Amino acid sequence: MNLRQPFSPSPSQAKPKAGASSYAEADGRPDDSTFDLAGWRQDFPILNRQVHGSPLIYLDSAATSQKPLAVVDRLQQYYLQTNANVHRGAHTLSEEATFAYEVARDRVQAFLNARQREEIIFVRGTTEAINLVAQSYARPRIKPGDEILLTAMEHHSNIVPWQILCQQTGAQLRVVPINDAGEIEWQAFTALLTPHCRLLAVTQVSNALGTVNPVAEMITLAHDAGVVVLVDGAQAIPHLQVDVQALDADFYAFSGHKVYGPTGIGVLYGKRALLEEMDPYQGGGDMISRVSFEKTDYNVLPYRFEAGTPHIAGAIGLATALDYIAGIGLNRIALHERALLDYGTQALAMIEGLRLIGTAQNKVGILSFVMAEAHAHDIGTILDQQGIAIRAGHHCAMPLMERFGVAATARASLALYNSRTDIDALVAGLHEVQRLFH
Ligand code: 7TS
User: Does 418 contact ligand 1 (Cβ within 6 A)?
Assistant: First the structure.
């Protein structure tokens, strides 16, 4: 059996473009002559490597995306030419590093359409951003009997910080249920916006289902009920155009490494009026304006929340990553990924005994599934032998797995560099799983 044999769609589906001799050549291109998947793939040299003797098929971008040359080059250039600490130096290198770091902040501000640069705080990632809001915003304001509202599809990073907060304050967690497709139960959501509810923490896109939540509508209703909203944007930011002002999010968190940037850097956006009222939860260098043993005066925004030497290269690399995807255009990326998601969904539906988990109307490129015969981890191992990287497990969303009555799923997640060839390889690999388990 040819493990890389293409999946054949029905005639109405995914026709190759005129002149293209195979589905691989047609690779999900919308009708746009500037759509250059081959060129994009060349920007990611890691895609040329082999794994267990086969070309790498990388379908684990929801865990972390691969990095384009532009980002790797920028990091190298920073370390080879500029490296110095920021906000301290009287010397040229430190001034240049500070300038580049602060320009990176401006870049993030523009990307999110935040009103002011002071609203952009560099952190380690989504997890740290959410912990910051839980400890600096919520902890002093939340009282026993108050409620924190989450959804059934949150990542552990958007559950555990709130549980810790509840233990500290006597508040309670409430959870918005979801339907079998993996969509928010709207009536239940509105009913949970009671006078006890103080904060809603919701993911814009589910990492395990791909569901895109209607966060703008959720924020409007929450605000009507006097509820502050944090949006976990970890999985949204590589796929959707995000405008924090249009959303009217109070807080928005994301990680650099899921949006083609480095690990160890992320962003917390917060409305200035809220950030101004918050005390830091981490102390150290850079976050002070004056220290004596009696008292410390905190620095102005955004430095008040950036204790210690930041990930300078990370911030600069993240800004380059944002430039990179802006250069391609998020709309174009979304079109490509949507075409691939449809192609993959149809292909997986034809595999006997495969159950797709997450069938929301509004989805991004995540294909989570279980198979009748094989455990998710076995699927992952067999695919890896063929050079195909997927994730198998609970995806740090154990309550969600419980909701669907599974311990784990296999998850293929898409990025701008994926092609129909990748989906075909996945399908062929899953046929091999079936063969081995029959
Ligand atoms: N929120 C969501 C929705 C996520 O998908 C993740 C990471 C996080 C928060 C945490 O991000 P971090 O950068 O702070 O770790 N999600 C995944 C995943 O799906 N597979 O590996 C990590």
Answer: no
